[in-house]
């Protein structure tokens, strides 16, 4: 019988020869991640269980990224509680306030390899599937169970595979591809399914671009987002970790697999309009004045994104009346951007560059919008109130569209 990549990974993790979609399995966790915002509840519930020590202090990763540095007394209290837990449990992989966004630093620092089962108390944990792992978000109380036993139950998902072909036009990027796919199937088009990205277009993409695709699988309801590991994957991880790994690939005749063919040869830059990620239109059809531009997040705060934006911003200024925030996704990204002179380009263009963190993405930290204001963001969600006031509006785009729009003061095509 034939199986999908997700079925094969979950079979391995639950110590079974095979599992099929719809089956309930108890699986061993390879990596468990929680951060400063969702971690305190996980710790609180873990302590209620009555177990003194976590199952494996080497397999738990705790970065601070959502509210760093602390922007309120509540945030400071959360940081204190998590630091105490890290010390008490001797958690080896703890990253304090200057490491970066969790979904960026886990792959960067060698915590993710193909074939693993990864859980995190954040819905965009699916990002790590870009390296051929099964990665998914879980609740904080579920994480308490993982802390205690290193196991969690899963319903084995069916798989929706996008076979993406065609060469992308100039100024069209992975963000445009994923917005187009979400617009195609809808916000619930892949509910509790594993979403795979394959085809010649994906094969040509960098790991950074593949992370964009996997990151937003959740925005179409997906349980996880995966790209089969290949030579680019192995090149990415070889200098970051010496962990053992296993590569799994999907059998194309697997019974639980649905394949959708998508040709992106004629795709234009895309934008998701308020207040849903599947409300997608070509940029050419959206002529809207903006108040703020946010370049960053676990979706598009990587070095490639900063480069794309800097090419457009170099020698230009952000329009009067518009503020542009640039937030590198990690310390590594920030350092490389400094070395390449990208940060100077942003500062010279009158952008505000801040420390690696989630920024305004979650609506809980630096750069919130007020009533009636419009934000153009390279992040992954534009729900009402997502980046501040519920009376504001959030549009989503690529880094290139964000940069061009910042210069023009309205949502614009990058020329």
**Distance linking N and C termini:** 50 Å
Quick check: average pLDDT?
A: 95
- Sheet with most strands: strand arrangement: 4-3-2-5-6
Count of helix runs: 14
Helical content band: 25-40%
What number of domains? 2
User: What's the alpha carbon Rg, rounded to whole Å?
Assistant: 20 Å
CATH topology of the largest domain: Aconitase, domain 3
- Write down the overall geometry: globular
Outline the biggest β-sheet. 5 strands, parallel
Count of individual beta strands:
18
* CATH class annotation of the largest domain: Alpha Beta
Which CATH architecture of the largest domain is right?
2-Layer Sandwich
**Spans with pLDDT under 50 lasting ≥5 residues?**
none
- What fraction strand? 15-25%
Q: What's the CATH H-level homologous superfamily of the largest domain?
A: Aconitase, domain 3
Structural class: alpha/beta
Can you describe this structure in just a few lines?
The protein is of the alpha/beta class. The protein has 14 helices and 18 strands.
Describe the protein:
With 415 residues, the chain is α/β, with parallel strands linked by helices. It folds into 2 domains: 5-261, 2-Layer Sandwich (Aconitase, domain 3), CATH 3.30.499; 270-408, 2-Layer Sandwich (Aconitase, domain 3). 31% of the residues lie in helices and 18% in strands. The protein is built from 14 helices and 18 strands. The protein has helices at residues 5-13, 39-49, 73-89, 102-108, 140-149, 174-185, 200-204, 207-215, 231-238, 297-300, 303-313, 331-339, 342-348, 399-408; strands at residues 24-28, 31-33, 60-63, 93-95, 117-120, 134-137, 151-155, 159-165, 194-198, 224-226, 257-263, 270-272, 280-282, 292-296, 323-327, 352-353, 374-377, 393-396. It has a 5-stranded parallel β-sheet with strand order 4-3-2-5-6, with helices on both faces. Helix 3 (73-89) links the parallel strand 3 (60-63) and strand 4. The radius of gyration is 20 Å and the shape is globular. It starts with a helix and ends in a 7-residue tail after the last helix. The relative contact order is 0.14. It catalyses: (2R,3S)-3-isopropylmalate = (2S)-2-isopropylmalate. Heterodimer of LeuC and LeuD. Pathway: Amino-acid biosynthesis; L-leucine biosynthesis; L-leucine from 3-methyl-2-oxobutanoate: step 2/4. Its cofactor is [4Fe-4S] cluster. This is 3-isopropylmalate dehydratase large subunit.
